[in-house]
Design goal:
Length: 322
C-alpha cells in the first residue's frame, strides 16, 4: 500500500471518530424529518391522493387552462414564460395519452423528489465538517506529528483531501437512504412504482421516481469536488476552527443568497454557487440561456483548480507548530 493510501485510510478513520461528524450526520436526519413534516402539514397541495380517482379530469383542466393562457394575446407573456407553458402542455398531453397519473403531493414519491431542494444544506454541512476536520489539526497541534513522521506535506494534504471527498460521497449516500426512510415514516410506505414525467428541453421524459431521485443525487455529486476544494482552501488559509467554520458558513449562505438576488444576470453563471446544483441540467431548470453542462463543468473545474493550487501553495509554505 502506498504512503498516500495509508495516510488516507488513517484520515478517514480519524474523521469518523470525531463526534462533530456524527453530530452533523444526525442533524441531517433531523432536517430531513422536519422537512418531511413540513411538506405534509404546511406546504400547499394542489394535487393530493384524494383527487387520484379523478386525475384525468384534473389534468384535462390544467391542460385546457394552459392552452387558454397561450392563446390569450392580452396577457403579453415573455418568450421564456411562453416556452414554459408550451412544455407544460406537452407533459399534460403525454400523461393523458399514456394514461400515467401525476404524482400526488402527499405521498412518499413526491417527498423523495422534493428532497433535492435540501442540497444547499448538504453543501453547508460538507464545507463546515471539512473545514473543522483540517483546522482541528492546527488547534490540537497534531499536524506537527504528521510532518515529523517523514511524510511530505503534499502527501499529507492529499490524504486529507481524499478523505474529505470520501466523506462527501458517503454523506450523500446516507442522506439518500434517510430520505427514503423519512418519506416512508411520514407519508406511509410506497413501492415507488410511480413514474415521474417532465420535459427535458428536447422531449418528454418518463422515468421511475427512485431512478429520478438517484440521478438527482448523482448529478449533484459533480459539484462536491469544487465544494470540498473550497473547504480545504479556507481551512488551510485560516488555521482556526472558529474563523474557518464561520467563514465557510458565511460563504455558503451568502453565496446562495447572492445567486438568488442576481438571478438572471449573465455574469452570475461564472460564479461557483450558480453551478453547485448540477441536477438543474437533468430537470431542465437551467437559469441561463444557451448554458450547457460542459460550460458548467468548465466553471466548476476552474474554481477547483484555483482552490487546490491555493491550498497546496499555502500549506506547503506555512509554519507548523511541532
Amino acid at each position: 500500500m502506498s504512503k498516500i493510501a495509508k495516510l488516507t485510510k488513517c484520515e478517514i478513520i480519524k474523521m469518523y471518530s470525531r463526534g462533530a461528524v456524527i453530530g452533523f450526520i444526525c442533524a441531517a436526519i433531523v432536517v430531513l424529518a422536519m422537512y418531511s413534516l413540513y411538506l405534509k402539514e404546511y406546504e400547499p397541495q394542489f394535487f393530493n391522493s384524494s383527487k387520484m380517482g379523478n386525475w384525468r379530469n384534473y389534468i384535462e383542466q390544467e391542460a385546457n387552462y394552459t392552452i387558454s393562457l397561450l392563446n390569450d394575446q392580452s396577457i403579453g407573456m415573455t418568450e421564456n414564460v411562453r416556452i414554459q407553458y408550451i412544455n407544460e402542455s406537452k407533459v399534460y398531453d403525454y400523461l393523458l395519452r399514456h394514461n400515467i397519473p401525476p404524482i400526488a403531493e402527499d405521498t412518499a414519491a413526491s417527498m423523495v423528489l422534493k428532497a433535492n431542494n435540501l442540497f444547499i444544506y448538504i453543501i453547508v454541512c460538507i464545507i463546515m465538517i471539512s473545514c473543522f476536520f483540517i483546522t482541528s489539526e492546527y488547534s490540537n497541534k497534531t499536524l506537527g506529528r504528521l510532518v515529523m513522521s517523514g511524510a511530505s506535506r503534499w502527501k499529507i494534504l492529499t490524504s486529507k483531501y481524499l478523505a474529505i471527498l470520501f466523506f462527501a460521497i458517503v454523506f450523500m449516500l446516507i442522506f439518500a437512504v434517510f430520505t427514503v426512510l423519512c418519506s416512508w415514516i411520514v407519508f406511509g410506505f410506497d413501492d415507488f412504482s410511480t413514474h415521474y414525467v417532465y420535459f427535458d428541453g428536447v422531449k418528454v421524459v418518463e422515468r421511475n421516481v427512485m431512478v429520478q431521485m438517484m440521478l438527482n443525487f448523482l448529478y449533484n455529486t459533480v459539484s462536491l469536488v469544487s465544494i470540498s476544494s473550497l473547504a480545504v482552501f479556507v481551512a488551510v488559509l485560516t488555521k482556526s476552527n472558529l474563523i474557518g467554520m464561520s467563514l465557510c458558513f458565511a460563504v455558503s449562505v451568502f453565496g446562495s443568497l447572492f445567486s438568488s438576488v442576481f438571478a438572471g444576470t449573465d455574469w452570475l453563471k461564472y460564479t461557483l454557487f450558480a453551478n453547485t446544483d448540477f441536477s438543474r441540467f437533468l430537470n431542465n431548470e437551467v437559469a441561463f440561456d444557451n448554458y450547457t453542462p460542459a460550460m458548467s463543468l468548465g466553471v466548476l473545474g476552474i474554481h477547483t483548480i484555483i482552490f487546490v493550487v491555493g491550498a497546496y501553495t499555502v500549506f506547503c509554505k506555512q509554519d507548523v507548530v511541532i
